[in-house]
Design brief:
Blueprint (H helix, E strand, L loop, with lengths): L19 H29 L7 H7 L4 H7 L7 H13 L18 H16 L4 H10 L16 H15 L6 E3 L2 E3 L2
Antiparallel strand pairs: 1-2
Helix pairs in contact: 1-4, 3-4, 3-6
Length: about 190
């Protein structure tokens, strides 16, 4: 009398929640939206600081520049403002792995990703490079793959990118200490 019985919200065979597929799709959409938002925000800031051209066609032309070469050159010589902007934008797109586990937990250090990161660190130390960008530029010159793929084993963590950004900032700051565009001053 007035009582409704709802069926179990799980798949009968796998006993998994029916909401799993929706939750995974929603998570993918959110991740993509955050990525696009970071891209738009950085591009807006780079244009305001004079490190990227305001015209979309000019920005598209900069895509032909090899960002790995620019990242390696930025450690040794001054770059033009737009070249520096291209290198920074590229670093934003490849931010490296950062675990979302809380520190101090039972984090396994021998997982596949962590093992690949440690292997990359060891390869970088053996080759004598200062940053990840310099290492990847060397690989690219040899014609080897530089993108993170499970079979290639190139997995970087966030700390590698932070070290590289700081090294580029230290090297480029004397040459680009204040870049002005439309009355706005930005420190690199």
């Amino acid at each position: 009398m007035g009582v409704r019985i709802f069926p179990d919200g799980r798949d009968e065979q796998s006993k998994q929640s029916n909401a799993v597929e929706r939750r995974l799709a929603r998570g993918q959409r959110r991740r993509r939206d955050r990525y696009l938002g970071r891209r738009r925000g950085l591009m807006r800031a780079l244009v305001e600081c004079g490190l990227m051209p305001g015209d979309k066609e000019e920005r598209k032309a900069l895509e032909r520049l090899d960002p790995y070469k620019l990242r390696a050159r930025a450690l040794h010589e001054p770059l033009a403002p737009f070249e520096l902007g291209r290198a920074l934008f590229h670093l934003n797109q490849r931010r490296g792995f950062q675990s979302n586990r809380k520190a101090g937990g039972d984090e396994k250090e021998d997982g596949q990703v962590r093992t690949a990161i440690n292997h990359l660190r060891q390869s970088m130390n053996e080759s004598g490079v200062r940053t990840l960008g310099e290492f990847l530029a060397r690989l690219r010159r040899k014609g080897e793959a530089v993108r993170a793929r499970p079979r290639v084993g190139l997995r970087a963590d966030r700390a590698m990118y932070e070290v590289e950004i700081e090294a580029i900032r230290v090297q480029q700051e004397p040459h680009h200490s204040r870049v002005r565009s439309s009355g706005t001053s930005c420190a690199t």
